[in-house]
Amino acid sequence: MRRYRYVHATAALAALALALTGCGRAEEGRAAPLPEVVGSWSVESLTSGGRTVHAPESARVDIGHDKATGSYGCNGFTAQVVLDGTSSMTVTPGATTLMSCADQDFETQFAKLFKGRLTIDRGPDRLTLKTADGSTIAMTPKPPAVDAPLAATQWTVDATVNGATVTSLPPEAAGKAVFTITDGTAAGSLGCNRFSAKATVEGSTLTFGPLTSTRMACEGQVGAVERALTDLFGSGPLTWRIQERTLTLVAPDGNGLTARAASAAE
Predict the structure, then answer these.
(1) Could you tell me if residue 12 is inside a domain?
(2) Are residues 158 and 257 in the same domain?
(3) How confident is the model over 10-51, as pLDDT tens digits?
(4) 134: CB partners within 8 A, 6+ apart
(5) For an engineered disulfide with 44, which of 31, 81, 92, 138 has Cβ 3.0 to 4.6 Å away?
(6) Residues 6+ apart with CB under 8 A from 60
(7) Are 195 and 178 in contact (CB under 8 A)?
């Protein structure tokens, strides 16, 4: 009787262990949930005509239920989006900035592919958009970006704005105009001369007081940019907007600037 009980208990434990092992295997084999199409995506690469090119780090797409925004890598863009469930989407390009960019070939190719009807392939860690001719845009999930603060951030002017047109600064002037707003004061460089001024923020407007600056003679493109910034800062309340690390300041007449926030390395 004792021997019979021992064998019976052993068999029961073995059966229980086998059941638990099978349960664990079933749990391990369960497919991970596929990502939603609506969200923020970092562009990884483009493939067209059998050639794959890798994207710059700043290339991204933020897909909403009826629109998309993003960056081709340098220039920003908007588009209207019609989603057909999770299997396809139709993209109608909207506005884009017109800055001269280092990787213009990639930007042109990205803009060419991200339009029209695109089929959607969702993988566990990526989203692939495919055009009618088989070209693809491979993307990986990107955490939502946090906008840089207006105050206590060093801003480097990188482009001028005239209505809907954004034009990058000429190479001679690039990276020279910088400013920071701290405790109600703006200070920095107009590209040649140092300046300071009172800065008042009221909601979405920023107003500079009279500028105090050094008086060096500034010529060429650097001088032209400096004069444009001096006029802008003295034109009255400016509308400001920050998207991730880009600040846009625009006057009522449509003239303005864009500036990028310094990275931790800078």
Answers:
(1) no
(2) yes
(3) 444 444 444 445 544 444 455 557 778 999 999 999 999 999
(4) none
(5) 138
(6) 40, 41, 42, 43, 70, 71, 142
(7) no
List the structure tokens of 250: 């625009």
Residue 5 lies in a domain: no
AA letter at 85: G
Residues 148, 156 contacting (CB under 8 angstroms): no
Task: Please report whether residue 30 resides in a domain.
Answer: no
CA distances to 75, 105, 113, 120, 206 from 108, in Å: 10, 5, 9, 21, 35
Same domain for 135 and 159? no
Which CATH number fits the domain that encloses residue 129? Answer: 2.40.128.270
Rounded to whole angstroms, how far apart are CA atoms 123 and 257? 40
Q: How many structural domains is the chain composed of?
A: 2
Alpha-carbon torsion angle 105, 106, 109, 113, nearest 10? -170
Domain containing 75 equals: 39-141
Read out DSSP for 87-139? TEEEEEEEEE-----TTHHHHHHHHHHSSEEEEEEE-SS-EEEE-TTS-EEEE
Length of the chain: 266
Q: pLDDT tens-digit profile of 104-135?
A: 899 999 999 999 999 999 998 899 999 999 99
**CA distance linking residue 192 with residue 45, whole number of Å:** 39
Place of tokens 């001028």: 160
